Amino acid sequence: MTDLVLIVEIAGERAAFRAGDVQSVVELESLTPVPRAPAYVAGVSALRSRPLTVIDAAAALGLEPGKAGLGGRKAVIAEFDRFLYALLVDGIEDAVPATSELLPLPGKLSAQWQRVALGLAETAAGAVLVIDARMLLAGPEARSAA
Description:
Layout: E1 4-10, E2 13-18, E3 24-28, E4 41-47, E5 50-56, H1 57-60, E6 73-80, E7 83-88, E8 91-97, H2 111-116, E9 117-123, E10 126-131, H3 133-138
Parallel strand pairs: 2-10, 5-7
Antiparallel strand pairs: 1-2, 1-8, 3-6, 4-5, 6-7, 9-10
């Protein structure tokens, strides 16, 4: 996997998305809660007049909701099956090339992270856990196909 990865911070941990899964990164200005939505669905918003389902990445892992404040919520925009999603993250570092293929996961990785993990990738910024954006969208109750 010698592709680009986008390094982010979720629940105080560094992780990365495959750049091919990322449409853009933005700071969301507004967020409208959705009654009766699962707890990991932070609400809805809009991007260039297109609706976004906003997912709190930490809550989708089954962890404490992210620390994103009221203003300037950092989000990774992904499009799957023609629907746009905003994955709220605590921080966005950089897009960097992976310098290795995906490596096996460490044995000490928590179950929450194992569920969404694709593997480790070496980068110039160090090793980073590459996660599957689709598994985050599925929420904390989803089970890995592996």
